[in-house]
Design goal:
By secondary structure, this protein is α+β, with helices and mostly antiparallel strands. Helix content is 58%, strand content 17%. The radius of gyration is 32 Å and the shape is elongated.
């Protein structure tokens, strides 16, 4: 028999037991969909993080207290010994033309009229911050030097804050209450989106001097430093390490580049991709066991048919290929159904998620289909060999 004939006979046998075939392929379909979705979601998250981190600029490095970037961004780092004089020391003593933006983060609750929003990050910083982070207002202006010198109570808000507190109308010039004091809004920052659980738009920017007075500390959460070119990052970081080591113990600060932080995030993402894909692969193996079980049942039910085919001249390889092709076809059909489920799931995630648009990875589809065929082949071998090795006389006697 040709391959086309084997395929036709396999399809006829699968169609003759529609419910059983559907239930058998369901396990493979779920496993394939899980592999595709988990890998695609993980890759989508990594791409979004890459886009966000690279958006900060390849010529930017950060000085952190104790080497905790995530905690510093949330304003919950351990007690920091970084101070404004350390930022000034970096600016004065470095041989590069740098822009330095010291930052103090603190969680606050904002109130406007009867509206209020908790869990907002108040960012005390300097006018250089906008240029250092390449992050500018879409409405109004950013902080000015006079705002720092006069310790003014002015604020530039993120888009999440704007949508939460101001349902309509222009927000510029309006007053909101921050930590019990009124601040006048002078600008609205462009949207930056989310970085994992951190909403970058859920921030309000105030003068650093005002933040020091308001929160009762002269410490900093971190220091952003922008160098002229990306090629200057490595020597500039080495120089920053040397400059700060003269003023602080080595264990009280860490100098990190955007590239290093990106590599860390991507390596974590790769680990999660492998881990999640492996978990999904286990569910696919379970589906393969179901296929083997059904194929063994099928061999038992068709014992007389096998004996008859052998009696009229069918060879063992023919029977082996026939039953193996049925197992592979069942598994492949399950993989195809899994691909359809994965696309449906990706559409649902893309509709519901504000973090990233999940798109199906062609690699994940190819991997899932290839794995489903491999599973069908592996678990179909034993039933096929069992069918091929049946004694024709004993098979014809089978009731």
């Amino acid at each position: 028999m040709t391959l086309a004939e084997h395929t036709q006979v396999s399809l006829e046998m699968i169609a003759s037991n529609k419910l059983r075939s559907a239930l058998t392929t369901l396990g493979v379909a779920i496993g394939s969909a899980a592999i595709i979705l988990l890998i695609s979601v993980s890759q989508g998250a990594s791409q979004e993080v890459t886009h966000l981190v690279e958006g900060l600029g390849s010529n930017l490095y950060v000085v952190l207290p104790g080497g905790t970037p995530a905690a510093a961004l949330r304003g919950s780092a351990p007690v920091s010994q970084l101070k404004v004089q350390h930022a000034e020391k970096l600016r004065r003593e470095t041989s590069f033309r740098v822009l330095v933006a010291p930052v103090l983060n603190n969680p606050v609750t904002l109130t406007y009229g009867r509206e209020y929003k908790a869990g907002i990050s108040a960012v005390g910083t300097v006018p250089n911050f906008a240029e250092v982070r390449n992050w500018f207002p879409t409405q109004g202006t950013f902080l000015k030097k006079s705002d720092l010198d006069l310790t003014r109570r002015v604020a530039v808000i993120g888009t999440t804050v704007q949508s939460a507190l101001f349902k309509w109308g222009d927000v510029l010039g309006k007053d909101l209450v921050l930590a019990g004091e009124k601040f006048r809004i002078i600008g609205v920052m462009q949207s930056k989106g989310q970085l994992f659980e951190v909403d970058l738009d859920n921030q309000v920017f105030i003068p650093l001097t005002t933040a020091h007075r308001l929160f009762g500390t002269d410490n900093l959460s971190l220091i952003f430093v922008r160098v002229p070119r990306a090629d200057d990052i490595t020597p500039a970081m080495a120089e920053a390490q040397r400059i700060l080591s003269a003023a602080l113990p080595a264990d009280q600060f860490t100098v990190k580049s955007q590239g290093e932080m990106l590599e860390t995030v991507l390596s974590i993402g790769a680990i999660f991709t492998v881990m999640l894909g492996s978990i999904a692969g286990i569910s696919l193996l379970v589906g393969g066991i179901g296929i083997m079980n059904i194929m063994i049942v099928s061999v038992t039910e068709r014992t007389r048919e096998i004996g008859l085919r052998k009696a009229v001249g069918a060879r063992e390889p023919d029977l082996l290929i026939q039953f193996l092709s049925e197992a592979i076809l069942l598994s492949f059909l399950g993989g195809c159904v899994g691909v359809a489920l994965a696309y449906l799931g990706a559409f649902s995630i893309a509709t519901a998620s504000t973090f990233f648009a999940a798109s199906i990875s062609p690699f994940a589809v190819a991997l899932a289909l290839g794995f489903s065929i491999a599973v069908g082949t592996f678990f179909g071998v034993y039933p096929a060999v069992k069918a091929a090795h049946l004694d024709p006389i004993e098979a014809l006697r089978h009731e």
